[in-house]
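Q: Hi! First time doing this. I have a protein sequence and I read that you can turn it into a structure. Is that right? Here it is:
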Amino acid sequence: MKLTLCLLNTVSFAVIMSATITLSRAQKVNPDALLIEDFENRVKDYVKLRKQVEGRLPPLKPTVSQEAIAHHEREMAERIRKARRGAVQGAIFGPEIAAEFHRLIGIAMQGTDAGHIHQSLQHAEPVRLQLRINGSYPAGVPLQSTPPTLLMNLPALPPELDYRVVGNNLVLRDAKANLILDFIPNAIS
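A: Yes, that's right. Below is the predicted 3D structure, encoded as structure tokens:
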């Protein structure tokens, strides 16, 4: 009887300690890191969809023909649009993720490199256009690059995607298909 009680107490103690350790670990999770992880998972999901679409396209053979390259880009963009038919603004930059990006951009804009960021954005040709999810980035409009010091504060992207600044919006763009995937309005002040 004493041995049974002792074993029960030992087992109970082990269960309580395990639950306490699990709870303690859960409380230590950085909520900002979870938001970035959520963003990265959404980006991975898009890249997976993109690769599936691209895999069904006839491969682009090495060519110098701008017409052939543009045709391939348009075909891929059209197929991605169909695959993302219901995509809306915020599908990748959900509200919580957008808030985290606003925070990260705000930190960069107040840091020691803030002057360089503002100067870079002012020297670039200003880009103003109506942003549309799954819309093509207009061919005649310059691609304003995102200042490197700002990029250092944002999550890295796979090579198929890039961040662009359009007005004061941060745009997520598929570089090869030239598609606007999502954007954060008023991200840069």
